[in-house]
Amino acid sequence: MSTRLATGGRLIDRNKPLGFSFNGKRMTGYAGDTLASALLANGQMLVGRSFKYHRPRGIVARGAEEPNALANFGESAAFEPNQRMTTTPLTEGAVIASQNHWPSLEFDIGAINARMARFLPAGFYYKTFNWPRGFWKHIYEPFIRRSAGLGKAPKERDEDRYEHLYAFCDVLVIGGGIAGLVAAKAAGDSGQRVILIEQTGSWGGRAAVDGGQIDGIEVMQWIKETLQELEKNKNITIRPNTMGAGIYDHGYTLAYEQTHDLNAPRHRLWRIRAAKIITATGAIERPLSFANNDLPGVMLASAVRDYLADCGVSAGDRTVIVTNNDDAYRTAVALKEGGLEVPAILDARPDPLGQLVEKARDLGIRVEAGRGVASVTGKGRVQGVDVCLHAGEGAVLETIPCEAVAMSGGWSPVVHLWSHCRGKLIWDEEQAHFRPDPSRPPINHDGQGFVITAGSASGALQTNDVLADAHRAASGAGTPPVSDAISEGPIMPVWVMPQGAGIEKRAKMFLDYQNDVKVSDVQLAAQEGYESVEHAKRYTTLGMATDQGKLSNINGLAVLSDALHQPIPDTGTTTFRPPYTPISMASIAGDARGELFQPLRRTPLHDWHEDNGAHWEPVGQWRRPYAFVRTGESVDQAVAREVTATRTSLGLLDASTLGKIIVKGPDAGKFLDMMYTNMMSNLAVGKCRYGLMCSENGFLIDDGVVARMSEDTWLCHTTTGGADHIHGHMEEWLQTEWWDWKVYTANVTEQWAQIGIVGPNARKVLEKIGGIDVSAETLPFMTWAEGKLGGIPVRAFRISFSGELSYEIAVAANQGRALWDMLHAAGDEHGATSYGTEALHIMRAEKGFIMIGDETDGTVIPQDLGLDWAISKKKDDYLGKRAQARSHMTDRNRWKLVGLETLDGSVLPDGAYAVADGENANGQRKTQGRVTSTYQSPTLGRGIAMGLVSNGPDRMGDVLNFPDTDGKPHEARIVSPVFYDPDGEKQNV
Amino acid sequence: MLLITCPNCGVAAEETELHAGGEAHITRFGPEASENDFEDYLFRRENPRGVHFERWRHANGCGKWFHAARCTATLEVFGTYSAQTTEPPREILETIRAKRPAWTWRDLK
Ligand SMILES: [Zn+2]
User: Which of A113, A193, A361, A869 is close enough to A169 for a disulfide, judged by CB 3.0 to 4.6 Å?
Assistant: First the structure.
């Protein structure tokens, strides 16, 4: 069993015990522990179950590469699933629960999957779930749903704060090991602005554990002094607990900070622009592939000595070392010197000779050369190791009892950040790993490399090489620091142990622990033709778990290469994608949640609406009142009341969100003739004209009333949602096509409040306030005038979107509320009723007026909507004219605008399709039209609708069937889209 | 996150400040155009893997359109220039020729 030793542990504070619970069991750790070290200290080696076979799994690693130890962490609003125990600091009262088991961690029903393993081979998902079809719903899906998803989803709203920060520097150094420290110091000394980030809370990386001297002083002291020098340099910013998450195009970097500070935002997402990025991201130890290498108690050799040195935690009294390189001997030495037993070092190399090997032998440790692990034995945890010849097939020479196995298959540089932006890799035969190719770096906007690797991340594994490489990466002045590290013997690549293992053993050698991918699975994938590494990855799910294959990647593609009988570089690697390790969704959102999710645009009358029962509707970034609901009234009742009040007496509408664009200049008329389908240049000053705007594809994109202000100035009204993009559309054509035309545009939407005064009593109320002549003679329909209303300067537009006598009065935004209040006071005798967007929609539909976004969807041309009258026949050209002459656009069977009246007076379902006879090529019922707008009309007391129907205008009186989504038929007759006052007698008074 | 310098205001703009506007130097065909010319104008694009001339708008900045010469594969930016021109300026072409001797784009090389 793992345990806490009486002494040791450089990172823990034995004076600060922390209580926590694991699966409800009370335990104690120390400040400085991670969840993983605290659990190991409490003898908890079993921490979870694997995804597919539910095999018992323990802690394998010390850091971000850990594949097994994921936990549901925290409670209620602070609950988070899938927290990596090896990187999560222990806190007082921490509540930890293991994942992916039922009913309990120790007794798990799903483990039966393990016995089914031969029925769940590589590509199982692809192979099985396609057949028979009926099995999907009742058998496969419930099975996957129960076994899929590791952690639980949080149930409560996250109560913590998160933020984004922006930073700029000359050099960003990612990684705070000795390489990162050397590089940051060299860059800072040369006067550059430097940011140094480190993913853990401690500095010095592996060197802090492995000891020795740098420049004649003890490593720990050297790290401390170097850090102090960096802190003194004002050019250098240092952030621990901050991971380089991703490097993106042209040197944009995301860093993820976990503050571990209750008084600060929980996570920060740093968005860093650096001229140069130095990745000093170190290397990760590879596991070895031997049978049962996933039993709890089998760990990376480096992790075993990290837990010992950092936390005073032993993985077991007796640890067998399995290796193909010298570095693992450091673990043996550390354990032995820590008073623990190392029954044997099984070294696959036939003749290990390095100084570390000698040191282990001198300590009396039994070194077995040319040996490997035939199988790890034990039920639920390591109890012993069956020893064999590595070169053979696995005949057991002896069984060594032990509690832990420390394995090392060599070290792979962490190349992720280098690779995110297409930095290329080369295979290093001597060290048996992929490392960055400095001649093919990621390039920036100028075509220059912008990422440089430093230290182990470059493939420099010996301390002196690490120091020299980091010094070079930062173009340091003078000579690099020097260590007293002893030289190591060469590694021997080992991808399968023993090398001649049969299928029974290979089916128990785990490559990807989290996703349960074994050596046999990758070999099967190759045999079945999945030769591309990207295909094999998806077929087997190798490297697709939340650890993204940090441990399994190289071993997996080595096995694949062997199965394909090709060298490893020919197989290549899969694509490395950000983030390096998962970052929280909340950090991505940052402050953008709740009210801060996006800016809210308020009209000058917003507060009045709020105080008067507005039922809000989002329209773009605006909030508009859908209806003003009175006490005791439903929303539908409010809408009906507003329509009736407006039609019979007086309605008031806040139309301020309407887009308002000024187009001015000697060529403004010529320009507008191009922008609109109809003629605007011949519009008289003081007159208004309804206009349509199309894209060059011919499709209708916006509509609105244009008013001519003066000889060289027009005011273009756009839809509420269209103001910004229509202004952009105008600017695009002016800047990129007709740049010699003298035209100036300005979007003045927010400078004006606009109020609709609508209904038979509209004129009376304006006359009562007085100041501007609004008589039928002076201000007829489709004209406008400037003047004063109740002392306020106004523009009065005689336009109507309701079919009633109607004025739209524009005033400076800061006068909007005063005018609104004045109108309500003066209109009180007529029961002045403010109405919302739904009443507006219903009244326009009763009149057959189209609405952009309802009757149009980007595929509709004005001719489809019966708007030919608004298309000039006199003009040579306008945007969309040529496209509207294309054969498909002139097809007589195009879906065209009609009115629809249900036979029983009910309301048609919105968006419903009219079915036609027969089926299309996909076996679906053919269609001949669809509903675009549908309402209960309070005025007519029945359902009304508009729709687009194939050749509709020529089919008046035909009855169509619009089935609802449940198949229920709705019969409707094709009628004119103008349901109310077809001759316009009400608006032209 | 591309970094492209707006030639109108001189700001080295983040991609999020910019609005991409597709291929540059397209001649507009109007009502008199043949079916083929009009189809080419509306739909046919170079879509190269390599050197490309494109339109960008500094939308969340000065609001102006400009042109950029950029490699679609490596994302290298060879230069930016005014949108108010019908062909790439000589110095941009010289830069590309120096860096990519074998390049072609429409009838440019
Ligand atoms: Zn600009």
Answer: A193
**CATH code: domain of residue A634:** 3.30.1360.120
Q: For residues A322 and A314, give the distance between their C-alpha atoms in angstroms, rounded to a whole number.
A: 17
Same domain? A564 vs A458 = no
Domain CATH for A743: 3.30.70.1400
Give how many domains chain B has, as a whole number.
1
Cβ neighbours around A567 below 10 Å, total = 11
CA distance A719 to A702: 7
Label residue A55 by pLDDT band (50, 70, 90).
confident
Q: How many residues does chain B have?
A: 109
Answer yes or no: do A633 and A763 share one domain.
Answer: yes
pLDDT band at A51 (very low <50, low <70, confident <90, very high): confident
Instruction: State the pTM of this model.
Output: 0.91
A703 contacts A850 by C-beta, under 8 angstroms: yes
CA of A220 to the centre of ligand 1 (A): 51
Please report whether residue B84 resides in a domain: yes
What's the rounded Cα separation, in Å, for the pair A95 and A77? 13
A689: tokens are 């004209």
Evaluate whether A435 touches A458 at the Cβ level (below 8 Å): yes
Q: Do B15 and A249 touch (CB under 8 A)?
A: yes
Q: For residue range A106-137, what is the model confidence (pLDDT) as tens digits?
A: 766 666 666 666 656 666 655 555 555 566 66
Report the complex ipTM. 0.97
**In 3-state terms, what secondary structure has residue A816?**
helix
Decide if B26 is inside a domain.
Answer: yes
How does pLDDT run across A809-847, given as a tens digit for each residue? 999 999 999 999 999 999 999 999 999 999 999 999 999
| Domain-embedded: residue A811 | yes
What's the A911 CA to ligand 1 centre distance in angstroms?
42
Distance from Cα B8 to the centre of ligand 1, integer Å: 5
A454 and A553 share one domain: no
- CATH number of the domain bearing residue B85: 3.30.2270.10
Torsion of CA A442, A448, A453, A458, to 10 degrees: 80
For B56-102, what is each residue's pLDDT tens digit? 999 999 999 999 999 999 999 999 999 999 999 999 999 999 999 99
A876 found inside a domain: no
Name every residue whose Cβ is closer than 8 Å to that of residue A670 and which is 6 or more positions away in sequence: A681, A741
Chain A positions touching B77 (Cβ under 8 A) are 445-446
Report the phi/psi class of residue A183: left, alpha or beta, with left for phi > 0 and alpha for psi in -120 to 50: alpha
Asked whether residue B105 is domain-assigned, the answer is no
Q: Which domain holds residue B64?
A: 3-99
Residue A481 lies in a domain: no
pLDDT at A102: 61
Sheet-wide strand order for A371-377: A371-377, A384-389, A398-401
Indicate yes or no: CB of A732 within 8 angstroms of CB of B57.
yes
Burial of A248 (0-12, 13-18, 19+ CB in 10 A): middle
Domain of residue A230: give its range: 162-284+413-473
Considering the domain architecture, whether residues A764 and A649 belong to the same structural domain is answered as yes
Given B31, B63, B76, which is nearest A443 (Cβ)? B76
For chain A, the domain total comes to 7
A528 located within any domain: yes
In angstroms, the CA A327 to CA A488 distance is 8
CB-based contact A736 B55, cutoff 8 Å = yes
Residue of A447, A735, A882 with shortest CB distance to B65: A735
Half-sphere exposure of A190 (CA within 13 A, CB side): 17
- CATH of residue A899's domain is 2.40.30.110
In a domain, B109, yes or no: no
Q: Which of A301, A294, A287, A296 is nearest to A549 (CA)?
A: A287
Residues of B in contact with A445 (CB under 8 A): 2-4, 75-77
